[in-house]
Structure formats: structure tokens, C-alpha cells
Design goal:
The protein is built from eleven helices and 13 strands. With 336 residues, the protein is an alpha/beta fold.
Length: 336
């Protein structure tokens, strides 16, 4: 699919909402940079991650959404900030036109940044959420989602076309799929190599996602593991040292790591603990790695994905306030 792009200037723009949108763009960037000029535009921690992964590329900063979560529930927090989100979409729409003119961009690939369509060039939108799950205002939200998807020439869905082996379930499989959509199979920065790797860690904790829930999860896991003897490695997914949990002496703590480092860490670990974000699920699926999935409270997409995968051989689903490591550590490793 990506082989059709040659000698183009391609602008790739992941949303900065956790690290998943940035990480699943990594395999796309790696393949496209072989025969194209790549420019990356994002903001915040997503931009920092891609700068560490591709220091030789050109980077631009896009307006931040700056969505904050308050103690009123995630969905209500987002709903109250919709004017700010729509303003950010408008601002990034203006910004991308300037970048397109400055660098003579031929193709724009947007991972969940709704404002990056441009009628002057080919535009591609990446999402696994064609059908957004909401407890209220579902019809309005999905109408807006499809409206913006329709602004792009193409919509790429990173999942299998066959719903029976789908990783995203009802989020991307259903009736009345938009005409510009096509399935491109799951995207992962990792690859299953097949060799036996020595187990160096009992538990790898991979933290990500918006604050304050990222910090809340870190502190909850640190508390649960503090009196245990397992060898633990934590990837905090942030550079903010002031929010660090109280980890015991058996724990190795890292802040941000490159894709190659994380692949090594996961391969050397018996069990992975992570949010049930879709990019994380795609990575774990490729590595065939046993994992404890803990959805962000109130984030309906992650709650659905954790429920959807809880019967699989790979994943165990637990809520943030009900973490039980015995359930995970006592299960046999995946043998598929």
C-alpha cells in the first residue's frame, strides 16, 4: 500500500492524546522515509517521542488540544471543553495550510487530527473509531466524526477487514462504512521475531495517557507492588519527575524509551501492565505478549476494548481500583 508513494513530500501528524497515535505512525514513517521526504507535525509528548525516534527528520509544532480531566468524569470533562477542541481543530487547519505551502507538501497523513484536510493535496485520515461509543449524545458525536472523516480523501482503518479476527471490534466494523474508508491491517512498531528471549523482568509496566489518570495509575500500581519481590521495569511515559510513584528497590524506572528499547523490554518481560489503548493492543498482539489491561476510568473506548479482549488467551482485564497481580502472574504464558 505505502509503496505507491515515491519522491513525495509527506506530512505526518499524529494527535497528542496519549502516545498511541504517535507510536502507530512509526511503522508508516519508517516505510515512507525510504523513498520520500517526511515532515512530522504534532505537539507535546507525542512530538517528543517522535523526535527521539527520528532525530534526522524535520519537525513542526501544531496547536495543542490541551484537554484536561477533572473529577467530574472523563466524558463530562471532554464535553465541557468541546469549544476549546473545536478551536484547536480550526487552528490546526490554518497551521497545516501554512506548512503545506512552506514545504510544498504533496500528501498529508493525519492520525485523528480532524482539522488537517486540505483540498489542494491528497489527505489521509487514520482512525480505528468509525463508530464512537458514547453513553449520551451518541448520534451527534458520530455525525460529527463522519463529517470530519468525509473531509479527507481517504480514511485508513488499522485493523483486519474480517470482523471475526478484528482487534477493534464494533469500533470499526459495522453497517454503513464511509465510502472513503479502507482496512490496512493492524499497525505496530514491533515485529514478532520468533527467537526465545531470556526473561529479565517479571512485570513491565507501560504507562501512558492523559493526566491526572496516568499519575493515578502509576501511584496505584506502585502501591500494589511495593511489598512484592518481583523484578519490575516501569516506563513512565512522561518526563515529569514530580509525579513519580513510590517504587521499591526491585524496580527499574525509565521515563521515555524508543521503540527498539520498548520492544526489548516487553520481549524480556513475563507480563505487561498497560492501558487498553488500541495501539497498545496492536503492539501486544504482534508480540503475543500476556498483559493486564487497565482502561482509563470513564474512557469508553478503552473500557470497551478491555471488555472485548478479556476472553482472549493474551489479556486480563481489571479496573484501576481493583488491581490484583496474583491473577495475572499465576496464569501460564501465551503459547500460541
Amino acid at each position: 500500500m505505502l509503496s505507491e508513494f515515491t519522491k513525495k513530500t509527506i506530512l505526518i501528524c499524529p494527535l497528542n492524546w496519549g502516545l498511541g497515535h504517535a507510536t502507530r505512525c512509526i511503522p508508516i514513517i519508517k516505510e515512507l522515509e525510504v523513498s520520500n521526504r517526511i515532515i512530522i507535525a504534532s505537539d507535546g509528548i507525542a512530538l517528543d517521542l517522535l523526535k527521539a525516534e527520528f532525530p534526522h527528520l524535520t519537525f513542526m509544532e501544531l496547536p495543542a488540544y490541551n484537554v484536561k480531566y477533572y473529577n467530574i468524569g472523563m466524558l463530562l470533562s471532554v464535553f465541557m471543553q468541546l469549544p476549546k477542541i473545536f478551536l484547536a481543530i480550526f487552528r490546526e487547519h490554518i497551521a497545516v495550510k501554512k506548512i503545506r505551502k512552506k514545504y510544498s507538501v504533496d500528501v498529508i497523513i493525519s492520525d485523528n487530527r480532524y482539522g488537517l484536510w486540505d483540498k489542494s493535496v491528497r489527505t489521509i485520515f487514520i482512525t480505528h473509531q468509525i463508530y464512537i461509543r458514547m453513553p449520551f449524545f451518541k448520534s451527534i458525536v458520530n455525525f460529527g466524526n463522519r463529517y470530519f472523516i468525509g473531509k479527507f480523501n481517504e480514511c485508513w482503518i488499522p485493523d483486519y477487514v474480517d470482523s471475526l479476527v478484528s482487534l477493534s471490534g464494533d469500533l470499526s466494523h459495522g453497517k454503513n462504512l464511509p465510502t472513503n474508508c479502507k482496512y490496512i491491517n493492524p499497525l505496530s512498531r514491533f515485529s514478532k521475531k520468533g527467537e526465545v528471549v531470556e526473561c529479565k523482568y517479571d512485570i513491565a509496566v507501560v504507562l501512558s495517557g492523559p493526566e491526572p489518570q496516568r499519575t493515578n495509575l502509576e501511584k496505584e500500581i506502585a502501591k500494589e507492588l511495593y511489598t512484592r519481590k518481583e523484578r519490575v521495569l516501569v516506563v513512565r511515559g512522561t518526563t515529569n519527575a514530580s509525579t513519580i510513584g513510590k517504587w521499591n528497590a526491585n524496580t527499574t524506572v525509565k521515563y521515555l524509551v524508543t521503540g527498539n528499547e520498548l520492544e526489548t523490554i516487553l520481549s524480556q518481560s513475563k507480563v505487561v501492565v498497560a492501558r487498553s489503548g488500541y495501539s497498545t493492543i496492536m503492539d501486544l498482539h504482534v508480540l503475543h505478549k500476556k498483559a493486564l489491561l487497565i482502561p482509563t476510568p470513564g474512557q469508553t473506548e478503552q473500557e470497551y476494548l478491555a471488555e472485548f479482549h478479556k476472553e482472549s488467551d493474551l489479556f486480563v482485564f481489571q479496573k484501576q481500583n481493583e488491581i490484583d497481580f496474583e491473577q495475572v502472574l499465576n496464569q501460564p504464558p501465551f503459547s500460541g
